[in-house]
Amino acid sequence: MVTLNGIYMMKTRILTIVIASLPWPAMAQPAGNAIPAIAMAAAAPGSVWSINVVGLKGEPLGTITLELLDEGADTCMSGEWKKARLMQSSFHSPAQQFETGDYFPTYETHGPSVTIQLNPPGLCDAYLFLEGKFTEHDGKGDYVGLSLGGTKPLGTFTARRQKP
């Protein structure tokens, strides 16, 4: 059984079963649901992040610059997702959608963990995520794909918060 974004997944020979469990914040946050101030600063609305993504062999896949917004977003995933404004991208998939104006990445936070969903609105059952731990100034984590067939590692990322 593996977890991805607070969802338990159990892979069998025939299909992947997704079981929603306790809300992720209940498992990840300290008693009293206190979120460390540094984690709140990392995901503060208006903060701008430059994210460098590399593939599994270390090959550069591109850079994404986005601003975290304090506006709710509808996604196919459960949770409290918010919109992010894509400011610039050399990352192939989001860059194409950004040029057409159809792209609004979304993000969700749980303590120091931040998940950025790189899906266009309404695309379900084939997800691209950047999942990692962020501090007030930087972050790092994994670039993964999630579909009905399971979770697939695609690479890693590093992030740096831009100064205002």
Describe this structure in words.
The chain has 164 residues and is mostly beta strands. Helices cover 12% and strands 51% of the residues. It has three helices and eleven strands, in the order βββααβββαβββββ. It has helices spanning 24-28, 37-42, 92-100; strands at residues 2-4, 7-11, 16-20, 48-55, 60-72, 82-89, 106-110, 113-117, 126-134, 138-147, 150-161. The strands form two sheets. An eight-stranded antiparallel β-barrel has the order 4-5-6-7-8-9-10-11. A three-stranded antiparallel sheet has the order 1-2-3, with no helix packed on it. A hairpin with an 8-residue loop joins β8 and β9 (126-134). Mean pLDDT is 75; it is low at 1-36.
